[in-house]
Design goal:
It is a single chain. The protein has 370 residues and is an alpha/beta fold. It has one domain. Helix content is 24%, strand content 18%. It is built from 7 helices and 15 strands. The strands form 4 sheets. A 7-stranded mixed β-sheet has the order 6-7-8-5-11-14-15, covered by helices on one side. Helix 3 packs across helix 7.
Length: 370
């Protein structure tokens, strides 16, 4: 990378980091249960005494792909399935996910699109399983439009729940020089227009190198570089995405969500087990409210960018800390072809809680749409 580009990038990211951070509520605040505002993302994992968890039986859900179906892949223990998230504060509670209400009211005649990588797919399939568990006879059709997979539910006025696979949100374009990651271009955004609910996510792919890196060059403005600081690239891409949201989203017609950074568990020192290098032998969550290893630095950058979006409310699904506490929830060797995976999540599992929180935020906002 030449010095001019380096200085430009450092200056841009420095400006981003000076933006005031989100409030503690972080997009998951709720006044349900009392006048005091609470944060649905601050809490602890507790054993579910009522028997409501897991929210579905993975063996009867037709939507789970093999890499997330840990029980089918041979995971013997089921204790990780019996925890529920309990927000802190006497006035803070989570309403149970009512799939009938969700489909008959929140989703009737509407479209929900998840946009992102395999962590978005994790959450998308979780949501479909929660719905199917309560409405097993609801018919649906499956269709594909390029990178988008669509499930349509005719009984609910053709409600659609979709996934658009886009791991960077910004564009990767094949050119004569090779595959170029363009940090200031979102041509793919044309596919997102018209959705009633958009849930975005990117982070998982930003630090990939070697054969799994899906680009050869990064373009910043007119400058083409072989590589750059990946967190800086992430920040510049998110700034482009934020500008797209401001320019293209009518908040009276579309609710926008951003799924926070989903963490991995490969370093036991972060949770008090030095020498442990994977999630492979983890069978229970951390039971306190705070992850000992702290939060990833990219999260502060993400929050700063979201806080600077003007004119369009973006509801932040601040899932990072609650997911960090779930070192037991990954596929481990019970995912795709037995390969160690401490990044994605078993289904049923942690993404179900992400969707319960999403549902609770929707309860207070879905009627705002025209």
């Amino acid at each position: 990378m030449n010095n001019a580009v380096s200085i430009s990038i450092i200056f841009s990211v420095a400006l981003l980091l000076q933006i005031p951070k989100l409030s503690a509520a972080g997009g998951g605040s709720s006044k349900r249960g009392g006048a005091e505002e609470c944060n649905l993302f601050q809490g602890i994992w507790v054993r579910d005494a009522a028997g409501d968890y897991p929210l579905y039986n993975e063996s009867t859900c037709p939507f789970i792909q093999p890499e997330f179906n840990c029980q089918k892949n041979g995971r013997i223990d089921r204790g990780y399935l019996g925890y529920r998230w309990e927000p802190l504060g006497a006035s803070c509670s989570l309403a149970r996910f009512n799939a009938s209400f969700f489909m008959s009211n929140v989703m009737r005649g509407r479209t929900m699109m998840f946009v992102g990588d395999s962590l978005s797919r994790n959450q998308w399939q979780s949501l479909l399983c929660i719905i199917h568990s309560s409405l097993p006879t609801a018919t649906y059709t499956t269709s594909f439009q390029g990178s988008t997979t669509i499930y349509t539910f005719p009984h609910y006025e053709n409600a659609r729940i979709m996934l658009d696979r886009n791991v960077f949100l910004v564009d990767v374009v094949s050119e004569k020089t090779g595959r170029v990651l363009k940090l200031d271009s979102i041509e793919a955004g044309k596919r997102w227009l018209g959705a009633d609910y958009l849930i975005f996510n990117t982070w998982h792919w930003w630090n990939r190198r070697g054969p799994s890196q899906p680009w050869d060059f990064i373009q910043v403005g007119r400058e083409l570089v072989k590589d750059m600081d990946r967190t800086a690239a992430f920040g510049l891409a998110l700034t482009t995405w934020a500008a797209w949201v401001e320019s293209n989203i009518d908040p009276a017609k579309t609710l926008v969500f951003y799924q926070g950074i989903s963490p991995s568990h490969y370093n036991g020192s972060e949770w008090g087990e030095p020498g442990v290098t994977s999630c492979g032998k983890e069978h229970q969550p951390l039971l306190g409210p705070t992850y000992p290893g702290g939060l990833p630095p990219a999260l502060a950058l993400l929050k700063n960018i979201l806080a600077n979006i003007r004119g369009v409310p973006v509801h932040f699904l601040d899932i990072t800390n609650l997911s960090l506490l779930r070192k037991d929830g990954h596929p481990s060797i019970y995912g795709l072809d037995g390969r160690l995976d401490c990044s994605h999540w078993c289904l049923a599992g942690v993404p179900d809680t992400w969707n319960v929180i999403l549902y609770n935020i929707l309860l207070e906002n879905w009627q705002l749409l025209r």
